[in-house]
TrEMBL record:
Presence of keyword Protein transport: yes
Record keywords, A-Z: Lipoprotein, Membrane, Methylation, Palmitate, Prenylation, Protein transport, Transport
Topology relative to the membrane: Lipid-anchor
GO CC annotations on file: Golgi apparatus
Domain Longin residue range list: 8-127
Organism in which the protein naturally occurs: Ptilonorhynchus violaceus (Satin bowerbird)
GO molecular function: SNAP receptor activity
GO terms under biological process: endoplasmic reticulum to Golgi vesicle-mediated transport; protein transport
Descriptive protein name: YKT6B protein
Entries under InterPro entries matching the protein: Longin-like_dom_sf, Longin_dom
SMART domains: Longin
KW Transport (keyword) present: yes
Length: 135
């Protein structure tokens, strides 16, 4: 059971912005890592774009399960995990991350924000904390 990606996005009027993301691509071949990361970023944006405000969903994409939660205020989170990772845990993580993000990052920064301009550093910690270590 693995988590590969945890992203916070903003679903604005015109398009979806990636605000912050963390990736764990360590299980992939070194030469595949950047393309896998690009795929995860693109897929996260696409899923948020296609999701309604106030919705939660789990979407299968290739061998991954993408769990998305789009809040009514447009703030969205996506977790990309393998098929065995418990769905309930993913949505608990998304709730926690989006609540914390909305308290720490001003709502005025969401529409124009990008990973370079948003200062929120907890995603990497959550990604490793929620990683299930197999013995």
């Amino acid at each position: 059971m693995r988590l590969y990606s945890l992203s916070v996005l903003y679903k604005g009027d015109s398009k979806v912005h990636l605000l912050k993301a963390a990736y764990d691509v360590s299980t992939f071949n070194f030469f595949q890592r950047s393309s896998v990361q690009e795929f995860m970023t693109f897929t996260s944006q696409l899923i948020v774009e296609r999701s309604a405000l106030g919705s939660r969903a789990s979407v299968k994409e290739q061998e991954y399960l993408c769990h998305v939660y789009v809040r009514n205020d447009g703030l969205a989170g996506v977790v990309i995990a393998d098929n065995e990772y418990p769905q309930r845990v993913c949505f608990t993580l998304l709730d926690k991350v989006l609540d914390e993000f909305s308290r720490q990052v001003s709502k005025m920064d969401w529409p124009s924000g990008s990973p370079a301009t948003i200062s929120y550093s907890a995603l990497d910690g959550y990604l490793s904390k929620y990683q299930v270590q197999t013995p």
